[in-house]
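Hi there, hope your week has been kind to you so far. No rush at all, and the record is pasted right below.
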Amino acid sequence: MKTKTFLTALLLLLATTVMAQTEKGKFLVSGKTSLDFTFSSTEISGSAVVGYTGAQSTYNFNITPAFGYFIIDNLAVSLQTSYAVNNGKTKSQTSQFIFMPDITYYLPISQIVRPFVQVGGGYVNISTKTPLTSGGKATQSFNGYTLGGGIGLAFFVKRNISLDLSGQYAVIKTSFSGDSSIKMDMKGFAGAIGFSLFF
C-alpha cells in the first residue's frame, strides 16, 4: 500500500513539474539550428535584375535564437531572429536575416512529449550573389516581410529542458532595395531541431 501511494505521488509530482514549465508567467529561451536539404520556390520579377526564377533544391544552414513569455498557460509570445545561408544547384548564394515575433501553443496532452503549433510574421532581408556570364557575381539586396507557421514535438529530456523537432512552412515577399518594382517572392518547407529552456 505504501509503495502504491508513493508511486502515485511521484507520478503526480512529475506531471505537475513538467506541465508547470508552460504555465502563465514562465519564460522560454530556445535555439533552433538546421543543416538540411530544403525545397523552395523562388520568383523574381522585374526587368533590371539578374537572377534565377523557379524551383530549386538547396543545402541550407540556419540558426534561430528566440526569447518568449507565457501570457497564459501553454501559450507563449516570442521574439526570434534567424540567420540562414544556402548554396543552390544554380551556383547562386543567398544569406537571409529575419526578425519575427511569433506565438507558440503547447498542447497539454502529455507529460513528457508536448506537441506544439507556431505562427509568426516579421521583417526579412535577403542578400543574393548570382554568377555573371562575364565572370564574377552580382550582389543584390531585398527587403520585405515573411509569414510562417509550423508544427512540432517538444521532448522534455529534463525537468525544464526540451529537445524540439519541427517542420515549418514560410512565405517571403520582398522588393529590391534599388528599385521597389523588382520583387523576390519565396516559399518553402524546412525541418529544424533545437533545444528550449523553461524557467
